[in-house]
Specification:
By secondary structure, the chain is an alpha+beta fold. The chain has a single domain, classed as Clavaminate synthase-like (Double-stranded beta-helix, 4-Layer Sandwich). 25% of the residues lie in helices and 25% in strands. The strands form 4 sheets. A 7-stranded mixed sheet has the order 1-2-3-13-5-15-4, with helices on one face. Strands 12-6-14 form a 3-stranded antiparallel sheet. It has a 3-stranded antiparallel sheet with strand order 8-7-11.
């Protein structure tokens, strides 16, 4: 296979061609793809007709351990029959668009907030692989923001102020901001975890802001002050110069690094148009030395 990386943005994101991920088993090709991910943070693969099993298998080859404690699993079992396969869709078990009042639809609206996947878990998410199965005839983009470029553009004194801070992440918080109600049992299962506000990647030797709508407050800082800081950073880090919007085609696969990017779904008329995507997220577990 002859890999080619075509940049799609000035600081991150590349389209990868010359590869069929269903047939990538050799370590040199996997290593080259991981190197591309380290450089670009988001990789776009066109015409990747993956089945659920093929997507799961490739994710394991790509990065090992899969995330299965998804937030929505606290509410309902997956219609796909595998908790490692997150259903990013607007349809029910019969393939019909979800009713406006369906809890699954209301819960899923929070995907339109800027976030990183599984930042509320320990270990958090590392890479996410999102596969397009049914795409509407209207635009229903996913937008990405480069948290490394946002960090590197900050003044040195601001970097020094942010570097030691810890934020608490809870997926319940990001939903409750939109008015979603949890039972006490559901909320207990979604208690969340603290995460550094700035992450460092040993391999790339680069830092990135680690923001998400899941971040409810800054630890050891007054709640109001911490939430104001988080809102200001979110506005700053999602300025147009740091962002890229992916327009989906059927059979697209997009992989991103949750440690160096944020993303959000863009709204569309989900009561009229079907959209079905499958996401697999790997956990940020250090590899065992060879």
């Amino acid at each position: 296979m002859s890999l080619r990386f075509t940049p799609l943005h000035q600081s991150f994101v590349a389209e990868v061609s010359g590869v069929d991920l269903r047939r990538v088993f050799d370590e040199p090709t996997l290593a080259a793809l991981r190197d591309g991910m380290d450089r670009y943070g988001v990789l776009v693969f066109r015409r990747q007709p993956l089945t659920d099993a093929e997507q799961l298998d490739f994710a394991r080859r790509w990065d090992g351990t899969l995330h299965t404690k998804t937030g929505i699993s606290a509410l309902t079992a997956s219609r796909l029959g595998n908790e490692a396969l997150t259903d990013i869709s607007n349809v029910d078990e019969n393939g019909d668009p979800l009713d406006s009042a369906d809890r699954r639809r209301i819960y899923g609206l929070a995907n339109q907030l800027w976030h990183t996947d599984a930042s509320f878990e320990n270990p958090p998410g590392r890479y996410s692989l999102l596969s397009a199965r049914v795409i509407p005839t209207v635009r229903a983009d996913t937008e990405f923001a480069d948290m490394r470029a946002a960090w590197e553009a900050l003044p040195a004194d601001e970097q020094a102020r942010l570097l030691p801070l810890i934020a608490h992440h809870s997926i319940a918080y990001s939903r409750e901001v939109l008015g979603f109600s949890f039972s006490s049992e559901e909320r207990e299962r979604l208690h969340g975890n603290p995460q550094p506000l700035v992450r460092y990647c040993e391999k790339t030797r680069r830092r990135a802001l680690y923001l998400a709508s899941h971040a409810s407050h800054i630890v050891d800082m007054p709640v109001a002050e911490g939430r104001l800081l988080l809102r200001e950073l979110m506005t700053y880090a999602t300025a147009p110069q740091f962002c890229y919007a992916h327009a989906w085609d059927n059979e697209d696969l997009v992989i991103w690094d949750n440690r160096s990017t944020m993303h959000r779904a863009r709204p569309f008329n989900d009561k009229q148009y079907r959209r079905e995507l499958r996401r697999v997220t790997t956990l940020d577990i250090k590899p065992v030395p060879a």
